[in-house]
Amino acid sequence: MSFSRRSALATMLAGTAAASRATGMRSAAATPPAPGRGADGQRIADLGDGTFINPIMAGDHPDPTILKDGGTYYMTFSSFLSYPGLVIWRSTDLVNWHPVGPALHQRIGTVWAVDLVRHEGRYFLYIPAAQDGEEWRIYAIWADRIEGPWSDPVDLGIRGCIDPCHVVGEDGKRYLFTNGVRRVRLADDGLSTIGAVEPAYAPWRYPDDWIVENFAPEGPKLLRHGDYFYLVTAVGGTAGPATGHMVIAARSRSIHGPWEDCPHNPIVRTRSIEEPWWSRGHATLVEGPAGDWWMVYHGYENGFRTLGRQTLLQPVDWTDDGWFRASGGCLSTPIAKPKEGRSGPSAPALSDDFSADRMGVQWSFHEPGPNEAARLQRGRQGAVLEGRGTGPADTAPLTCIVRDRCYQAEISIDLLGDAEAGLLLFYNHKAFVGIGFTPEAVKLFEYSDELSWARKRHDARTLRLRVRNDEHVVTYHYSYDEGRTWMRHDTRMEVSGLHHNVFGGFLSLKIALYAVGTGSVRLRDFHYDGNPAPVIETKLDSFG
User: Where is the signal peptide (predicted)?
Assistant: First the structure.
């Protein structure tokens, strides 16, 4: 690493305003072994030799909430402005995860860290959400089967709180803990509250000279183990400096306190920018298949904030004094899989001929408006997406989470009527890049603006588009003959800055498809490759 790069990283840790917006670069020491490869070459955790390599859920899977239900585990994550949202995933070994389906279909705003629980045979999701300009509310949805159907959201009347966690006290009553750390009692059915939200615990504070984002006690998760309730909390801020987010713990014999801080705090913290995972926090303890213990939490991959916060798994050891410590060594090396787990399927392929319904499981609309779902209709020849808006900045694109540092995606698009369409890498409406076309021209978008000088006149209603992201360097191709020959756009882009520390929102850079205008577009033969071979160029297009 050059002296100038080391200096830049040191500045970031010093907490300057400029550094808080920096992407950060990974060191050679932080580069992990090659991951396992699953469908479409996507990276997976299972290495096939009895070990796994983090992350267990690659790509944008933040704020994990995990439920052990007999011999099966279920997990879901913050879905923010994506609808359908709150995709539930299933595993029988804590390493390989396969989607069950989305639980949330009704838009209630941006959705942050939820809690998935089972109580007296019924599944509940407690959901903090906020519409634009409104205060946070906590909702509940429920289902008698994990596959659904899930109920419509019920507003619990809790205002200004996020990060709910459900727990049953020693009195048999149900409670929600929230950020703060605060507590409110729930009615027996879990669908209303009794009394007011009140302070519950004053969290442990780290030394004042630690480089963090802010104090921000959040993500409380509670566990009853032995004679104690254990309260696991995140402090230090969710993003910002790589060394900010951390996991702390406290315990009490009563849900009402008093709480005793863990003498080993923090349980988990990124201490150096040389580590493979940054901003580690928002943890939940879970019992493994063999009765051992594990901790599930999230973190940013060193140098790849664009992928969002990814889900990590680390073993936990209980100590003689009744506390617990994270074990397993460095997260950049393989870890033995949980004992007695039954291997199951991992993430399905992303390549899609649009003959099956993958809404929520793979595709979702970003910040959809009313009746957005009706825009997409599947058919034998592909899916038809109705145009809405005038460009990528004022439409709800169809998005797809990616898991890989290097990947390639391509799709064939037919314009039907007065329409424009394209293939994007999309963070939000202020931060995207991509290639699109009308019947008269090929267009290029860079950081949410069209590069008008890069337009290429043509006369075509069908194009196959390709985008390749090779560790933040993006290359575009297009083809008039369904991919038999390709033309490369002569402008490449660097997208390492399209992440939360620059644009906010806690999102990730996703593959996206957009359709605008008064017509529609047909989407055909989407293909994803998470481990693409080098491209052999056939023709370089010149623009002018």
Answer: 1-22
Cβ burial, residue 287 (10 Å; 0-12/13-18/19+) = middle
Q: Are 270 and 276 in contact (CB under 8 A)?
A: no
State how far the Cα of 281 lies from the Cα of 233, in Å rounded to an integer.
Answer: 8
Chain centre to alpha carbon of residue 150: 22
Query: 72-76 and 85-91: which strand pairing?
Result: antiparallel
Residue 285 near residue 232, CB atoms below 8 Å: yes
Nearest to 463 by CA among 486, 447, 480, 448: 480
Q: What is the DSSP letter of 504?
A: -
For 267-291, what is each residue's pLDDT tens digit?
Answer: 999 999 999 999 999 999 999 999 9
Phi, psi torsion values for 7, nearest 5 degrees? -65, -40
Question: Which helix (H) or strand (E) covers residue 385, if one does?
Answer: strand 382-386
pLDDT tens figures, 446-490: 989 999 999 999 999 999 999 999 999 999 999 999 999 999 999
Q: How many CA atoms lie within 13 Å of 128's alpha carbon, on the beta-carbon side?
A: 24
Q: Give the span between the Cα atoms of 422 and 57, in whole angstroms.
A: 28
CB 103 within 8 Å of CB 60 = no
Characterize the bridge pairing of strands 246-252 and 268-269.
Answer: antiparallel
Distance between start and end Cα atoms, the chain: 38
Among residues 235, 245, 241, 176, the alpha carbon closest in space to that of 204 is found at 235
